[in-house]
Every structure is written in structure tokens, then in C-alpha cells.
Amino acid sequence: MTEPYTCRVEVRWADLDLLGHVNNTKYFEYGMEARVKFYEHCVLHPDGVRRPALVLRKADMDYLRPILLSSGPLTIETWVTHIGTTSYSIRHRMRDKHGELCAEGSAVMVGFDLKQQKPRPLSDEERTALGAYLISSV
Question: Which PANTHER family does UniProt cross-reference here (predicted)?
Fold first, then answer.
């Protein structure tokens, strides 16, 4: 792949603060929603088998312009910037319905062994699927 995965996320009335802007914490929720859609679409297989767990290690966000209720639906581009042994880094760009860039964020996801409660190596299957969206710069 040379293009990011793209999905739409709705702006909900309950996401707004008293000023009528989307609350800053909701940007992280939009990023999480995009990561879940990315993982389901790009990494999970349609066989319905539950895949190994992932946990969020780190997330950050650059707020570039306010998101309003009328800004949605948002288009969120998601791509992988690094694949390590037990983790991968992911990047998001959030655009309003007019294509204006509202925020950019990143996250580090870690493969996690639920029984041992510690990081696990990413499987070859996961690495291959993630590699299809590995883009050094967009």
C-alpha cells in the first residue's frame, strides 16, 4: 500500500464543550475509533477468530483547528510509521468535511499476552498486514 487507510467518524453532539467545540479529549476517542476500524479492516481476518490482544502504550495529538458539530463527518487517515518486535507506531490525520486538517496524532500499540500480562511479539501475520500500510512520510 502506498495510501493510508481512510475511514469516516461522526461528530456527536455529546462531544461538544460549552464553547461549542469538540472537547480535546474526544480527539483521542476519534483516533481510537479510527485505529479500531483500521485494525478490523487491515489486520483481522473475516473468519471471526479473535486475534491476540493489543494495548495502547502512548498517544499524542496536535490540535490544529477546532472541530465543530458542523465539521463532520470527519475523514481520518491512518497509516503505520514503524513496526518493531512487540509494537508498532501509527499516525492519524483528521480532516473536516471540507478537507481542512483539524488534528494530527500518533499512537504506539503493543502486542500483549493477556495470560502473562506482558508484551508479546507481533505475529508474522500481523507484521505482514501492518507492513501493507507502512509509510515513512505522508
Answer: 4-HYDROXYBENZOYL-COA THIOESTERASE FAMILY MEMBER (PTHR31793), LONG-CHAIN ACYL-COA THIOESTERASE FADM (PTHR31793:SF24)
